[in-house]
Amino acid sequence: MQIDDRHITGWCDQCWEHFNRSIGQYKRYYKYVKIGITVDYRVRASQHERRDKRYKWERMIVMYKTSSEKHANWIEGTYQDQKDFVNEWYGWSHMSPTGEYYVYLLLGNHKYRKS
Fold first, then answer.
1. Is the pLDDT score of 15 beyond 70?
2. Which residue among 20, 41, 52, 64 is least enclosed by CB atoms within 10 Å?
3. How confident is the model at residue 81 (pLDDT cuts 50, 70, 90)?
4. Is residue 85 classed as helix, strand or coil in its secondary structure?
5. Helices and strands in the chain, H and E counts
6. How many CA atoms, within 13 angstroms, populate the side-chain half-sphere of residue 21?
7. How many CB atoms lie within 10 A of CB 98?
């Protein structure tokens, strides 16, 4: 899986336009999109590759970095309820306090890739 660290920081209210625009573009090109949060995105990417084989995850986009677990959960929760995300677990994540939380997108099954 390719990992692209493109994270931004800042107050959530200042980031929504960026999130909406970026997510909309990715959804155009990938059949499967999942949003999640983690404290270590490299480890999390490896876990998804091993566990979620049916989605054929190709890319992880690290979108947001925050020191607030509450803000990370809030962003994830805002998007995971949308019908075109393939999130299967819903609720608040409780991670060990590390000081850094990442919101990421998983992208799988590119719609227009030539075989």
1. yes
2. 20
3. confident
4. coil
5. 3, 4
6. 4
7. 11
